[in-house]
């Protein structure tokens, strides 16, 4: 349950206010150059406290690699990456001990396990995704090293504000190495990770919600470039199915779509089907990418395009109705603690990580990457 | 890859124009009353040739149970259910041998395996879902027998026509045993399995597409009732993640959402969070069900609500551009064969089956159903 | 529980006196030439009724392949192999319904599942190993086709009579293709599958036991030739561990040893360690093979050598004490039915099958055989 | 490959001379009282430097629990246990970089991964079993807490010296709580963990080997008491098969047997079959325990009895022949470093741990222990 993948396996552990959070990455082939810096750079993208839109909890999130590396390269042995928690304030949460926060997993964890580490959501905290990101950083390095695969996520909607993207219409931005780098720069320099024309409008939308002690959601698009043909399996372990499950492993995600996604329902077969043709060099090409890079559960060589619906952060300052499980009374609560008014931009590195882990696992299983040694 | 589930496991086999299709269901606890009739009734709902909206291929799809049952009850041994193919016309497909049909898995299977049983899509055919339905029928019986769980799917959108549902607004229809039965009757008596006021409009929409040698898609909603609190796992094997993967194992599905799904992106935290309260009998209740029955990956006791985007059938009579892999030329094809102008209503029993298999597996794993004996 | 393997997966089903027994083999790469004959030839080696030392139950055990083959080759889709039961006599067993036979699984199955198909041992019958052999036949073909791997089992002990093997002392017999074929001929033409000088003595030993309405056990050695270096995994999924588990999946096996096995306990390190050297062509060689082809859980290139202890058939004609679970009385039973006075020779094809399945799975996982296509 | 178990899962990591070794234990139900002391006490039994028969490497092996515990109890979240390496001397091994030590995994790891952390055997070091023991300590606590299961290992043979056990003949010692405790005391106070009459003779045997710069092997017996009826699965995941695989995951183990083991081969069916009877209280009993507590792969309620063959430590001071992989020459080596002349007594806590992990996993899967909460 805390391990993801069959051949490339990420096992995560830790609680929001426990001693440490981390991951053991097993099944990474030997001879991949890997350093703490490779992991740290992804953790920094996920780290809190970087803008007014994220929780003020201060955590350096400094990773230490404890195993699996020798002379700067992986050895095929499991890689343990560890981050010690520093800025813990468990007392912030003690008053919430018996009053499950609406929209949170407090209630379901408590009823399932009959023992709940309620400090900051314990195991259900977003902080736990540090493990996802550690695993994803190794996967990204592996995919980049072997196939030059790039996985890029960005916000396309915040609350009711849809992003305005001209570049998205033609996908050339993804085909040109330079414009791609520029795109990534724009995304990363932006507090909402939204490279759109109307990003300011989105920021104002969030500020308004902050004023109201409320939170907002959004939609994130993730694109994986350079995935070779043939990744994924027929029937039950389809590439899309595995990706959907991976992305749903992020607490806030309420929907996943591939390619045109829900719009497919409105299209005629003649519109939806992507025409196939040979280009001048007799490479197989598709005229459109409605399928989002996947046909019959197997990658077809075009960019993998995914979108996820991210719900608004459930932690809000507004008064909310809930129950007191001890007194058996209906009560009202106000959540103090520290939390993000919009989790969308911080979800992005986690979503990328899950896509990377899934691809790494399927590409090893599918014979694209040797399971033992590069 | 052809096995789904960890504790309740369904292994499917067979090709569209091979000798037989079927499934081995392993991990069903002993002492569940089970007959061929239980399976047949679900297969009949999936069977082709029932309305003008489905392929005219004539298949009785008669199941035979070969193992795992003794004195009318399961024994804990694997249950093999088999359907022999009858109305095979492999020659219908021989002209498509080298010209992959757009929107189909022909190309990706062929490139992945370098050997393709092209007859009727072979292994990628919708016919393969007979195995899913056999497994799902056993799972449904198990869930119904142990927890009175009901899984109900219906069409809510066909092409651009959204269903008009008054009953859907208030969920009482699901709480009253009688109105529920009436609803199921309406769904099953309807050629599009859409219990909406404007179902006729939808039918005309499809007929128009048929005239144009085209196909249409739609959206299906699946509801699971009486799922107890605590099903599903934190972090990586969330109930929503497992359900999403299960539903994506149906070829035509391009998106999955839970509860309010993509609408969550547009909501404020204060709108999205489902308020918790004690009812008069001190039962924990939720004022709304925006979360679709799942919090933190674990069921919370409200109905599980899922929606899937079903793409239009890729097999269409219209001329389409593709490639000839032998001559390396760009060509045009017209698909003859027999196919459904809209696959949406026939997807429903398959989607229900996958939801049932997923729930059965997670409920055994979660200690809700004893793994060996009822 | 009824599926073996991760990448090369065999799912077995059926009962001794049910309609059919069989297996679904999933994960066999595409483009392996495979026919019913390949399977049948292995099933014939396992079939009952071939000598006075095996049960007189008459079964043709004719296999039918229902899926996964196209134009004489595997397609990557699951291969279902089925054998219909013919010579069923369930009534032979009805008197044993409530009196579990000592040494059999009757009691444990019944207590575990609270529902027991007692007819001929039901699911615990040796007949179920037809599924193992179907899976093993596919695995053997795959291993032979890709690496010329040969898996050969033979009896080395019957009851207290140890085989007298001069050829076994020097392992040249395994290195010469011709002497190997001759060895296999001797094994297969022999009623106890024991290529020893004193095989007649063994036969008399068994005949004596038959006279006494008793049964005997023995020891089987299995050798796998041409396994490349590097198969198996460090730590938990060692090649020896996987093989031991695979062989223990045969009911009668009470012990497994690798290389010198239990004799290792008596040796000094300086005796046990196999010296390593370069031969004239700078190939790495070992002076001895005490390790049985495996070091640190990973194959080292020498023959894999395994031995299993096979207990005497628990079904004997002699009076035995047991309980009547209905009357709660201590009783005595005499087993009529049909059974083997010595199961050792019929265990051999099953043991070979399990070794083959294990190797196929580990070699696909280890990157030795491409998982999708040959 | 570094994870063991399906429902109760132990993931191990670390190298002999890396920063740390440890384990993540996932799937332990909530509400098990657990402290660092529970783990430490098992680690202390495995720790080096306790007698002249073990390596003089000085390691405190102090465990720190980083997650999964709240208020002294497990929460259902993964438990990470970590031991930092202290007394590292990687330079001891640099001269062995290119000369694989006979009997070790140096060669196979190196050929498999093409990158080898040779420092002290790296990942193949016995030190890695700290992770096994951490996992086993949690499993032992769980088994003891829920079913009062006790797992006891002891040496029964050292080199050619068989232990002389009068108490072993009648199994009363295991049935009396007091005599059992006394037995454990004797085992633990003894440098070879052998509670036999002739233990001194064994010690002298080892001292003689030490003088000769050689090492010796032995046989260990492990008994699991109070395992309920019904643990384990028919066909492929038999209790014996799982235990055999678990025990083979210890590098030095070359053979595993259950009950009478290899002696079964020599017995007649009438001797081997354990008679069943009702005792005065109508409990089902067996007159003998030849089956070692397992029938048809499922526990039958009698003590589980296992024996493993432990090979002599491959690290010996004597000159040995091997190859230099760089110069491609045949060479001789002498292993300096620090190592155990006999590994048998230190294997015992590891073997017990693997038995405990296996039982915990199978008992959760079999519905004996609730997977979520005690």
UniProtKB/TrEMBL annotation, chains A, B, C, D:
GO biological process: amino acid biosynthetic process; aromatic amino acid family biosynthetic process; chorismate biosynthetic process
Binding residues annotated for NADP(+), in chain numbering: 46
Record pathway: Metabolic intermediate biosynthesis; chorismate biosynthesis; chorismate from D-erythrose 4-phosphate and phosphoenolpyruvate: step 7/7
Presence of the UniProt keyword Lyase in the record: yes
Pfam families in the cross-refs: Chorismate_synt
Binding-site positions, FMN: 123-125, 251-252, 296, 311-315, 338
GO MF term set: chorismate synthase activity; FMN binding
Designated name of the protein: Chorismate synthase
Organism: Methanocaldococcus vulcanius (strain ATCC 700851 / DSM 12094 / M7) (Methanococcus vulcanius)
Lineage of source species: Archaea, Methanobacteriati, Methanobacteriota, Methanomada group, Methanococci
């Amino acid at each position: 349950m805390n391990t993801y993948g069959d051949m490339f396996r990420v096992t995560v552990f830790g609680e929001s206010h426990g001693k440490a959070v981390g991951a053991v990455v097993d099944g990474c082939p030997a001879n991949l150059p890997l350093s703490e810096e490779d992991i740290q750079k992804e953790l920094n993208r996920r780290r809190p406290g970087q803008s007014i839109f994220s929780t003020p909890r201060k955590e350096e999130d400094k990773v230490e690699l404890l195993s699996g590396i020798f002379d700067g390269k992986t050895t095929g042995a499991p890689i343990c990456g560890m981050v010690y928690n520093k800025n813990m304030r468990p007392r912030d949460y003690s008053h919430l001990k018996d009053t499950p926060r609406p929209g949170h997993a407090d209630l379901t964890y408590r009823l399932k396990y009959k023992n709940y580490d309620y400090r900051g959501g314990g195991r259900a905290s977003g902080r736990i995704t540090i493990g996802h990101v550690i695993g994803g950083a190794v996967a990204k390095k592996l995919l980049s090293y072997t196939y030059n695969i790039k996985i890029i996520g960005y916000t396309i909607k915040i609350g009711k504000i849809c992003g305005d993207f001209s570049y998205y219409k033609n996908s050339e931005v993804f085909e040109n190495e330079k414009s791609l780098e520029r795109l990534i720069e724009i995304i990363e320099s932006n507090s909402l990770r939204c490279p759109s024309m109307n990003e300011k409008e989105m920021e104002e939308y969030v500020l308004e919600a902050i004023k109201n002690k409320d939170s907002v959601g959004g939609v994130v698009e993730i694109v994986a470039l350079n995935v070779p043909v043939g990744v994924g399996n027929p029937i039950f372990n389809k590439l899309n199915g595995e990706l959907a499950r991976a992305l749903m492993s992020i607490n806030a995600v309420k929907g996943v779509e591939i390619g045109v996604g829900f719009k497919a329902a409105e299209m005629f077969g003649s519109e939806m089907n992507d025409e196939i043709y040979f280009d001048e060099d007799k490479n197989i090409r598709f005229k459109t990418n409605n399928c989002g890079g996947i046909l019959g559960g197997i990658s077809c060589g075009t960019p993998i395009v995914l979108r996820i619906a991210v719900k608004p952060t459930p932690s809000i300052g507004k008064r909310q109705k809930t129950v007191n499980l001890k007194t058996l009374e209906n009560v009202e609560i106000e959540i103090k603690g520290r939390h993000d008014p919009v989790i969308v931009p911080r979800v992005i590195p986690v979503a990328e990580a899950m896509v990377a882990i899934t691809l790494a696992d399927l590409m090893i299983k599918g014979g694209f990457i040797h399971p033992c040694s590069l």
